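Weekly puzzle thread! Below is a chain. First person to post its structure in token form gets bragging rights.
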Amino acid sequence: MQKKIRVLLCKGGMDGHDRGILVVAQALRDAGVEVVYGGLYCSPEEIARTALEEDVDIVGISMHSHAHLAVFSEVSRLLKESTGEDWLLLGGGIIPKKDAPLLKKMGVKRIFLPGTDTKEIADFVLKTHSRKIEKSVLPDLVERTRKGKFLAASRLMTLVQKGNQKAKELVSEFPGVPKGTLLIGVTGPGGVGKSTLINQLISSFRKEKKTVGVVTCDPVSISGGAFLGDRIRMREHTLDKEVFIRSLAQYENFKGVTPETPDIVKIFGVLKKEVIIIETVGAGQQDLGFGDLVETLVLVLMPGLGDEIQLLKGGVIQTADIIVVNKAELAGGDEMFQNLLSYFGNTKKIYKTNSLSGSGIPELVEGIKEHKKS
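Winning reply:
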């Protein structure tokens, strides 16, 4: 059973420097911690929502502005108001020592000032026990999840992630996703823009008023920790209550995702998410089995990954339903697109996109819908 500490790291206020917090994130990852990165300029509402979706054990906020009292106070209030629990908050950055007593009253357990050794931070985090979910509340979590309660579903996901056998048994009894659900898999090598593409897909489906659940999978470091950073590409949807993003660390490879992924999908199904998107870890040519977990498998490529000889080697490119040439404006984009059309155009839909500008996204969305109907 995985009992990793999950820590959310965010930059609050208006400071735009992330070097320090990324150093801390790396240190925690190397110490065996699961780090969910929330990014820069996070509002209290964004921090609280992310903490609740990811069901983290610790919320770490770095501040370089004079808004620290207001930010910590509001985050503490929102979390307490949502769950009835006191959450463990940590502070860092430029925070006056004189404010430490007041911050501690707000629930800030420890403040790490400039010059603190990252080992000291990691040691403190590792001594913290992961938030316990008593077995006695499991039936209630299941019942409230069935009723569509967001927080119960988040806690149930945590139990599944940590390998709680009873939770897995109960979730296995959930029905499959409703018939009309769009169940989409997004795979491809690391760096091709999968997360940014998913962000565009979320935006498109939300314009249609569809509810969305997203599972993102990231690799585990050789240290046993993980940096879960995919959701930062989808940050614009953080405060949308009809979008639920959950990050998973891949301790065990299961078809390019994690063994818990099918259970998380079932929970999204019970929540009546109309669109469920699963993002694999940066996938290689051998990841063939992912397609049986989804209805529409989208393979994302980009120019510069190889010539037409690579296309003929097979693998996931043969099992994909849709192929996307992302960053298609780069040199070689048109040639790659034409090669794909030449080899696979009779059996697959092939699209060119730019996931930053949104070019080609409407056509891709229509292609996904058409595949669902076929």
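Puzzle host: Confirmed. Bonus trivia for everyone else. The domain at 6-126 is CATH 3.40.50.280 (Rossmann fold).
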